[in-house]
Amino acid sequence: AAVGDSVAARACVGTFHSRMWALLREGRPCDGRGRAEALIGSERCRTRLWQLLGPYLKTIGSDLDVKACADISARLREACVDSGDAEGGVDPAALAIAEAVVGESDAYRALKAAATYERLKSERGLIDYTDMLAIVYDAVVVGEPWAVALRSRFECIAIDEAQDTSLLQSRLVDELKAGARAILWTGDVSQSLYAW
Questions:
Q1: Do residues 156 and 182 make contact, with C-beta atoms less than 8 angstroms apart?
Q2: Which of 17, 115, 125, 140 could form a disulfide with 147 if both were Cys (CB 3.0 to 4.6 A apart)?
Q3: 71-112 tens-digit pLDDT
Q4: Residue 124's pLDDT is what?
């Protein structure tokens, strides 16, 4: 019982997003752009960002919903897909994601709006739920000291509902598992949210 109690006392439990938010708040030093102080999940931040993106959508002649643009942006990042290249070409995978959200007729405009959404977030020091994962993943991959220390922090990683793990989440686990003695994935593929 004593061994179990000591392990339980060190346990960190939560969703990917709640754990990444906690890690960002406790460990990430202020960078050149300044620490993101606001999570877009808060209603005030979301409303302000939507007020900024709404007029842009009108300038490109789109009646897209701002939430759809944010959804496309998150899906692109979760799937580790770039929306386009420097020459203006569009990645077919990105186009497919946009089409799944808004339909074929608005897909190109939706990708432009999603890119604007990303730019506005960055300019205002805001992050959304997918950013929490991406920031930690990028920091571990490039070797930022606060993030590399996370690799030795976890003795065991348990992922429940593994069928709902995005590519970004899987890559993050791969990066963090270096110090783990055990990784447990449980789930049912027939219940996958990411079957799209």
A1: yes
A2: 140
A3: 888 888 888 777 655 455 778 888 888 888 888 888 888 888
A4: 79
**Separation of alpha carbons 20 and 133, rounded Å:** 6
Q: Strand, coil or helix: what is 35?
A: coil
**What pLDDT does 17 receive?**
73
Integer Cα distance of 85 and 87 in angstroms = 5
User: How far is it, in rounded angstroms, from Cα 185 to Cα 64?
Assistant: 38
First to last CA, the chain: 45
Distances in whole angstroms, Cα of residue 113 to Cα of each of 41, 63, 96, 123, 195:
19, 11, 15, 15, 25
How many Å apart are CA 104 and CA 110, to the nearest integer?
A: 10
The structure tokens listed for 11 are: 């346990």
Mean pLDDT, the chain, integer: 75
